Amino acid sequence: METAGCPNVFGVKPIALNSPSAGNISRRNTVQNRYSGAMSRFEDIEAATLERLRALKAKPEVTINLIDMGMPLNAAGYSQEDILTVLLALEQEKIIALAPGNRLLILKDLPQ
Questions:
Q1: Contacts of 107 (CB under 8 A, 6+ apart)
Q2: Segments making up each domain of the chain, as ranges
Q3: Full-prediction pTM beyond 0.90?
């Protein structure tokens, strides 16, 4: 499959950015559009990340050490890249902010 002269080595259908939903970008839409077959994997990692943040008593205005959060998730089989993908999605939604010193600042209550 080729698009505009570029081979599509991943076998993923390109997304048309001029669609009516192009302005509606969220972690769910972005991940679902790019990796429709991997949506359940993202949800699993997201659920595990939120569960770990709750175990660390994360609430607004609290900072969490990334090592305290990430080590148990790594031990459970999630890669640092998987965890970072979820954290960046949460940051995009302004739920958390990546802070200096390998810390997360919780900005809002965590989603259910």
A1: 60, 94, 95, 96, 97
A2: 2-106
A3: no
